[in-house]
Amino acid sequence: MTHDHDHDLRPTRAQIDAALNPPPGRNGGDLVVETLQGLGATTVFGLPGQHALGMFDALRRSSLRYVGLRVENNAGFAADAYGRITGEAAPLLLSTGPGALTSLPALQEAAAASAPVIAISSQVPAAGLGGGRHGYLHELRDQKASFRDVVKSVHTVRTASQIPSAVSAAWESALTAPHGPVWVEVPQDVLIAPTALPVVTAMDATPRDLLPRPELTAAAAHQLCGAERPAIVAGGGVVRADASGKLRALAERLDAPVVTTFGGKGAFPWEHPLSLQSWLEDRHTTDLLEDADVLLVVGSGLGELTSNYHTFEPRGRVIQIEADLGKLESNHAALGIHADARIALSALLETVDTLAPRAVDGRRAPVPSGTERASTLLAKVRERIASQDLALEQKVLAAVRGALPDDSPSFWDMTILAYWAWSAFDARNPNTMHSAQGAGGLGYGLPAALGAAVADPGRPGLAVSGDGGAMYSIAELATAKQYDLPVTWLIVDDGGYGILREYMTDAFGEATATELARPDFVALAESFGVPAVVTTPGTLREDLADSLARSGPSVVVLPALLRMFAPTHL
Hints:
Layout (H helix, E strand, L loop, with lengths): L12 H8 L7 H12 L3 E4 L6 H7 L5 E4 L3 H15 L3 E5 L3 H4 L2 H10 L3 E7 L21 H4 L5 E3 L6 H13 L6 E6 H5 L21 H12 L4 E5 L1 H5 L3 H11 L3 E3 L22 H9 L2 E5 L18 E6 L12 E4 L2 H15 L14 H17 L4 H13 L6 E3 L3 H9 L8 E3 L9 H11 L5 E6 H7 L2 H7 L4 E7 L4 H11 L12 H7 L4 E3 L5 H10 L4 E6 L11
Helix pairs in contact: 2-3, 2-8, 4-6, 4-18, 10-14, 12-14, 16-23
């Protein structure tokens, strides 16, 4: 008896010959890199360490491109951005203990932003696994326990034959919606031990599609077709699923205004008549979303920032499409649809057309159109910002937008200009604006931009940091120079942790521990062989454009004290 899912498992003659004659000089590390190659990896990021040397030695016998950074956390940020830009799993090779633990903030950001990173770490020799205290260098009582709360899945290898299956399972986990980081650890002795196992061949770790249930699609389409004041929140899931075209078609079909979350920048055209842009920290936007009789939330968990610091209280029905099951209805009651955004939006669009084949403008005549609601909202936002004496901040952001090519990616550290960009920057294209707002750690901008440049060196990239955040990743100027990556790094130097200075001054009347001694960033960059220039708000656009047009890395330093717009969530 045969089944449709049966496969022809017989190896070909060539496979038999290769299996019986593996090349000499291989070790457990070769099995790691061969598995990565078999899964389709072309590039790995990382930093070597004593226990991981077998894995790094194997790289020279492979076709994988290795990009080494100077700090493990920065290597994690680079892998994160590579994963975001390509949609592929980005391998991150690490050593045991301190090297592994240093990557934790980057893996937390990858988890929050659903970036597919496959972190592969060495471990102490296998005899030391299991919680004992054997006195090995870098030994932890339970290394994987430090990562289990951060990554999607953990995989511990104890023998060479387990390596291909463990790496393959981790790869599939990383690329199963929602994407995310995963953790694999391999003991030192397994990595360096000679192996006679055959070379690992191509492996299939294709994740299954996350399909919406048809009864939920029908219920959601029925609610949307009957809505008088529909609205849409588009989150990062729309960008990751490459669903911006489907989103736009559905919004236009429903005449529904769309706001993009900070993680969903670029998911909907900024200048579209139905665009509410991204002014989520604005009470006017919150009011419009609360007033919607049906609110469609796609690829967002309606977390702290999206909900205007949990002040959002919807009065109408909420439909939530989300690939992360744990985020369904986690903050607001909704018709929850557990699905990939692109597939769900496609199903919803087809079902809406089935239920309501004719135009719906007539039914909505008594209420303002979606375009009218959007334009009224943006006029209120502009009026509020104009009343706050923030011309400098708007001029600086406009200069950045004017200098950056439309298809170039930008990566923003946690700095005041980035907080502005979340709300006010036109990303122009999906998957071109990224920030560390998922987990909120410092140091993301430069190493992430480097990872993106490795993924697509044909597009110059921009990194934006404050002087405080810049010191977290200053060492990566050496990486930028070593690999000659086309990244321009804008450092806004205000003499300290500017946003914390504002928060503390507002809360306590004065700031503590926010003022910083800084280096001469231009001289420091030039010491790495990276050209640098000091600019002004008036010359910023020209200086940035010149730097972005130059091959290789460059630094632009803007001494400026920027202020945030007043919050309206209080």
